Amino acid sequence: QAADAVFALDGPGVAGPVETDLGPALIRVNGILSAQETSFDEAREGLKDEFADGAARRQVREQIEPVDDLLAGCATQEELAADTRMQLGTIVLGEQNDEPIAGYQEFRAAADAAATGDFPEIIQLEDGGIVALRLDQIVPPALQPFDEVRVEVIAAWESAETAKALRAQAEALQAEIEGGADLLTATPAPVAVTDTLRDAFIEDTPGEMVTAVFDMAPGDMTVIGDDSGAFLVRLDAVNPPDLDDPEAAVIREGFAEQTAQGYAQDMIDAFTRSIEGQAGISLDQSAISAVNAQFP
């Protein structure tokens, strides 16, 4: 309904008020993109892949009902593998596992929620695949034999002791400087870092270095360390931002866009809740998303 008013603009601006499904509205046009044309020959391979992916998803979806029927008839995973095109596999699932099936969040969520003896159900994966899992047993954590991990244990101990010694050295240096020693003549020689923004990362330093510094006040000094070492940090000055800097302008624009999108989503959510309240209904967004995912 708003198309005529929107497409009548020859540049960014506001169209309306116009009638929409949500009622009278003003529509802001942020930009006009030139049309792009792609020849069939150029798009052929992409279309072929898209068609093949859609066809494969439809074939898999067609298997859901027959597999569900077999599961309802108390078929085991072994029988599913024998009677359908599904493949049988076993996995020891832990926090770190590089087997392909472990990369699916849907599978991990179902496995985490599973209990021994549960009735297996079809789980649809994000790429269109399906899986039915059975929890055979929960393997409790166990210490590895020391002889098998001796090298790793020694390396970890050495790393921890080294980090502890470096932190103690940095704290001793801090005490000396607080007692009157000159940081600029300290050993090792200090390194000055300037013009650092909140989202910066200082190479060869702990990841929380910049965040910790921005919580400090000028003149503060602290020791920041991790497994790689320890750093004695002193904040000399906090400089106000240069609002005329091109990078600052980009940041402001990005923040404004993000805020506008947040306002827009909040308005949609508020409108949806109002309609639900007036009509006496409720919408299950997860169910809606699941239905939409079924369409090619």
Describe this protein's structure.
With 296 residues, the protein is mainly alpha-helical. Helices cover 46% and strands 11% of the residues. The protein is built from nine helices and six strands, in the order αββααααββααββαα. The strands form three sheets. Strands 1-2 form a two-stranded antiparallel ribbon. The two termini are 27 Å apart. The mean pLDDT is 86.
Q: Which helices and strands occur, and which strands form pairs?
A:
Blueprint: H1 3-7, E1 13-20, E2 23-29, H2 40-62, H3 64-72, H4 77-83, H5 105-113, E3 122-124, E4 130-132, H6 146-178, H7 209-214, E5 221-226, E6 229-234, H8 246-279, H9 285-294
Summarize, please.
By secondary structure, the chain is mainly alpha-helical. The protein has 9 helices and 6 strands.
Please give the number of β-strands.
6
* Estimated share of beta-strand residues: 5-15%
Question: What does the average pLDDT come to?
Answer: 86
Taken from the alpha-carbon principal axes, the silhouette is: flat
Q: What brief labels describe this structure?
A:
two-stranded antiparallel sheet, mainly alpha, 9 helices, 296 residues, flat, 46% helix
